[in-house]
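Table 4 source record.
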Amino acid sequence: MLVAAAVCPCPPLLVPAVAAGAAPELDTARAACTDALGVLAAARPDRLVVVGPVEAGGSGAYPEAGRYGETGPYPEGTPGSFRGFGVDLGVRLGREQAAEPRRELPASLAVAAWLLERTGWSDAPIEGLGVAEPLDVDRCVRLGRDIAGRARRVALLVMGDASACRTVKAPGYLDERAAPFDAEIARALGAADVEALKAIDTGLARELKASGRGPWQVLAGAAEDAGLSGALLYEDAPYGVGYLVAAWS
């Protein structure tokens, strides 16, 4: 059963070494992520599942990701790095295990691993899962239900960004639909509104480059019968990308 969830953005810029001179610009977001992870620890879960967006068929994904839209699991101890962003910094998902992982963490899960290392997570075993754009609403919800049933007390760390179209300098340029889209997502996350997350317009999310759509709908499936309440801890759009932090408990 799902007992807690934290929702965090996943830009590599959250990692100060990657952001370099711009690092202070996301200090407030980092602090909010720390608070959200504190809610997970306080729930005393038996298992933590980390869910984040991946590129279908991309680096770190199973070959079938392009067809089915999900990759994983990334077992505890799976390594990741930020070398692709020009920084020689490695991370690891949770406590190191003896088995040699078959692949590295995708970027979103590497950011999650960094957040967990930063807060000294040691409260429960960890498993990572990737969600690619082809994973439709029904499959996301079913995946969430499956995750919630994996242990008596399950916590979720859900990584993903809102729209990337908030300004003319944003990765997706300015789209007038982006701000109201992000506002509704922020409302739904702050209210733990499961039905609103299920109802996200997948086509619009794709057009607005909102990478969090799939992971948020996985959360909706996991939280269906959990009766959790939500709190929105951070909402902003630096660099024209919507970043949201929320905690459900």
